[in-house]
């Protein structure tokens, strides 16, 4: 069956390669140019190709260099407008056809965010970045926007500001002068890139701004290169945060799962409106600036993004229904890497941290239990972003951990992982492809004993189970969490003491905690009945968690403070939280990462919907279009639940 999120006829004829020729127009906030597709027909007599588009202005189409008439369908709210282009009558299976579409984006593009210079770190030049996952590449270019296809691409981009793409730079050289030595913001330079490895359309990415590069130390025996891009004002801080670990993470991952295929692994630290923690764009992971904690405690996001080079970018889910294959596998391997780099206790600790996000996400979908599933059968035209949460990450990784233990532990499971990667690298697959390979592998490497173990798995419960519990209760190594658990229990037991001056707590309680232990402490505390408001205020002050510059800690504190929406603590801290998330706290920096902005607006709206609405409307345009869309859905849901004008 075709991907339900696309209108393209990719089962009849599909793109194998695209050549992009773009000009960036910062004044009008558009990308203008052409996309030349090399198509391969899959059947005789196919008479047209259908591309996905969304809010694109199509200007002209050439088929084998000859102008043709085309039709652009009505806009579907989720899937956009189908672009139908006639093919030559003699097209047969195996025929290759070249089609060039001349077009430009519009300011309604969901894939692109154009930032004014005031929204950047340096405040001298504007900025552009894309976000094409899950189905927004169609708002950047006309194409068959489905992860079922793997395409290669080249691009020539004319711009007055430095340009980065999810590909290998051909010219000007990365290690040369910025902007090829020309005047940034004035002189136009042609940037040329190539992506020789087939990737799904959602990994096509572009960024442009006042960007600089700093290479990471080379790893002996490795021929791939790695480094960091950022605005010059942040470059040194970004280099310090990521230079020590990125190369060794990537090298260790190769030891575990096999060679890195993309040649270059760079990271780009984006402005704060970027809606995710990271995005695994090929050759160039996009990262949120909220990772700049100053202590390297949040660099595990880099492990996650580079792991996608194998699980997602290499082995890709065939459609949104099987998205867990990307994120579940990546999260599982990311945590396995923690064990090899640090200890089994560190691996278990990451699962402890993730469990809180899992149960929160399951709770958010109690009214839409379909999205609590691991395998989600999307209807044609259903928005996959409606199901975006921690569930595919956490439920998927717990499922793989369960299988690892059931099949005999890491000594048995690691060789299987390598075989899985070797078998499917470069392909798009379904859950059923994965399951068939799992059975086949363990039939060949274990026989009846392993097949009997697999046959005891309740597959339907894992794939289609709903509700607030996993099919099998997980057990983790909680060594690193025990101290945090104990401290949370002491706070819970202290609620009977009305006078906070008599509480036996001090800043020294958490002096030896790293950031992750503070997070686990706050997450554990949030599982108890809400503390008295005086306790919450005292907690925020003595541990500095109410003013922490670490966004992960700050979010967890607000989860505690706003848990009881009728408490005086919630009333006091709602304005506090809204100022923080919208940058009205004196920093001028919004928390555009959806991990932070969505739950903060959700919690604040339960306390004071009018206040939350006011803050959102003031800062609405500063959030990325994807985040904006999903926060709007939170607003509508809250309006329904609260019966307010919100």
Automatic annotation (TrEMBL):
Keywords: Cytoplasm, Hydrolase, Metal-binding, Metalloprotease, Protease, Zinc
GO cellular component terms listed in the entry, alphabetical order: cytosol
Gene3D superfamilies documented for this protein: 3.30.2010.30, Neutral Protease Domain 2, Peptidase M1, leukotriene A4 hydrolase/aminopeptidase C-terminal domain, tricorn interacting facor f3 domain
Entry's localization field: Cytoplasm
CC cofactor note: Binds 1 zinc ion per subunit.
Residues that coordinate or bind Zn(2+): 304, 308, 327
Active-site residues, Swiss-Prot/TrEMBL: 305, 393
Protein residues bound to a peptide: 131-133, 275-280, 593-595
Domain (Peptidase M1 leukotriene A4 hydrolase/aminopeptidase C-terminal): residue spans on this chain: 479-635
One BP annotation, GO: proteolysis
Superkingdom per UniProt: Eukaryota
Predominant cellular place of this UniProt entry's protein: cytoplasm
UniProt keyword annotation of Hydrolase present: yes
A GO term for molecular function: aminopeptidase activity
Obligatory cofactor(s): Zn(2+)
PANTHER family for this protein: LEUKOTRIENE A-4 HYDROLASE (PTHR45726)
Similarity comment text for this entry: Belongs to the peptidase M1 family.
Protein name from the UniProt record: Leukotriene-A4 hydrolase
Organism (species): Multifurca ochricompacta
